[in-house]
Design a protein that fits this description.
single chain; alpha+beta; 6-stranded antiparallel sheet
Amino acid sequence: MLAYLLDYGQDVSADLIILEPVNNAESKFRNFQVTYRTTNFNQPIFHLPAHLSSAIITNLKEQAGINNRQREGQLIRRRQNSSNYYQVSAFSTQYGPKFVLQPNYHQPYLLPIQKLGLEPNDWQVLKNSIIAGQGII
């Protein structure tokens, strides 16, 4: 079910996927709604089945490495021979945790610091700034 929610977010080119709890005093299960924010408008809200919400949220927290102390994490979803990366943040609300997933549909690119085009003197200034007590401003 979590994979379906992420795949739908990619299909509508969502900038954010928001899972937030809904106040429902009648149910012993916690209900969650899912909103997909796009550049043009917000997609309709989906309500997760109440009996599956806990399992979906637990799966999300496990895959993103989120626990009671760690409130942010990353999630990788493999789809059609490519990987999609999500930055996951958890927030406390009155009715329970709210999760915001920010997708990055491109593989992160890490550039070695030596390839930034720094002159030898700039490289030494950078190293000294990192070592200095005040750091880099």
